[in-house]
Design goal:
51% strand, ten-stranded antiparallel beta barrel, 369 residues, elongated, disordered N terminus
């Protein structure tokens, strides 16, 4: 159960995010599939957008080396994606939940994966039951209306920046640079989450077409590319107690040993870049656009608590297969500025800042040969 949304923080590579933030994540599905999917989507929305946009924050490679016979470059690049404040929380009332509602109508703001690590709100079922408490004689019994069950939304990780590191290999053929970015198929430390990332991009210096720009410190480039990120882990969601006020009927049969979650991100991006070189420094500015999509699947057999279809105040535990298959898209326009410093004839460092939703700082360390 603790792993149902482990992927939501597994991408915070290099940060220590503890699994207790996800203790109640299985309950989001177990309290009702439709509402659970809405809550999960709202919880991980900023992670989706960061992954669909963040990698191309560091896609630029300098191409205007004059009389330089070095064609290959290798680098480590990291985008430190800043999460907008508006996407660190969400209003539960905006999700149009069908089976649950906030216990306290004055507390309706829940955390996303990048929200506060100490905050959550309690959701209660729309269906209720009358609970009778026997008081000492001669007082009459107390009859109290209570919800059938309660679940908690998830706290966040407490981090508002998401680093996306990757390796990049490039080949420059005069005024054209071909790049391959990648994270090899690896397992995230301290988890069973496996990830892989690759990107392909082409950057063209317009000096190839405009002779007046050749061998000049001023450079104009166009850049386009595509990247894909895929993550997978097995899950372990077993029948667990939610806060029920009455017994429930167990119609679940299992087994629950085939559970997994898959997340895939795809993104395309284009940019135009103007740079100017003064000795070992190159200063650049760019404008760009990118469009991404995400595909999230929760696959396998899961125990889910559902309300009785007759409308009576009762609950039943049933098996649900493949409860989540969701897609989403996101697009943005961005502007960025930065510099590159070349030293010792073959090494370079680069820093930039992207001004956009899910922008932030980027850093590159590499060498040419």
């Amino acid at each position: 159960m603790k792993k149902i949304l482990l992927l939501a923080v597994a991408f915070l590579i290099g940060l220590s995010v503890k699994s207790q933030y996800l203790v109640n994540s299985g309950d989001l599905i177990q309290g009702g599939v439709d509402d659970g999917v809405k809550l999960i989507n709202a919880y991980i929305l900023p992670m989706n957008r960061a992954m669909m946009t963040g990698m191309n924050n560091t896609a630029y490679t300098r191409t205007n080396y004059i009389d330089d016979n070095k064609h290959f470059n290798l680098s480590v690049r990291t985008s430190f994606v800043s999460i907008p404040k508006d996407d660190q929380t969400f209003n539960v009332n905006n999700l149009n939940l069908q089976n649950v509602h906030p216990e306290d109508p004055n507390h309706v703001i829940a955390q996303t994966v990048f929200g506060d690590s100490l905050s959550h709100i309690t959701l209660v079922s729309n269906q209720t039951i009358y609970d009778t408490t026997q008081n000492p004689f001669p007082q009459p019994p107390t009859i109290e209306e209570k919800p059938l069950f309660k679940i908690n939304t998830l706290p966040g990780s407490g981090y508002q920046i998401m680093p996306i590191p990757y390796f990049n290999a490039g080949y420059r053929l005069k005024y054209t640079n071909f790049s391959l970015g990648f994270i090899p198929w690896i397992t995230i430390p301290k988890s069973d989450v496996r990830v892989v990332l690759y990107s392909l991009s082409l950057q063209q210096n317009l000096a190839w077409f405009i002779k007046g720009l050749q061998d000049k410190p001023l450079s104009i480039n166009v850049l386009g590319g595509y990247y894909h990120f895929y993550a997978h882990t097995n899950l372990d969601v077993q029948p667990k107690d939610v806060a029920f006020t009455m017994n429930y009927t167990n119609n679940a049969t299992g087994p629950y040993d085939n559970q997994e979650i898959k997340i895939a991100y795809n993104s395309v991006f284009v940019s135009s870049i103007v740079s100017y070189t003064i000795k070992n420094f190159t200063f650049f500015g760019l404008a760009g656009y990118n469009l991404g999509n995400s595909h999230i699947q929760v696959l396998g057999n899961y125990p889910v608590y559902v309300t009785d279809k007759s409308g009576t105040a009762s609950m039943t535990l049933e098996d649900i297969t493949d409860p989540m298959d969701e897609t989403d898209t996101y697009e943005r326009v961005k502007f960025a500025a930065g510099f590159q410093f070349d030293f010792l004839k073959m090494f370079y460092i680069q820093a930039n800042y992207t001004m956009a939703n899910y922008g932030g700082f980027g850093a590159v360390v590499g060498f040419r040969f």
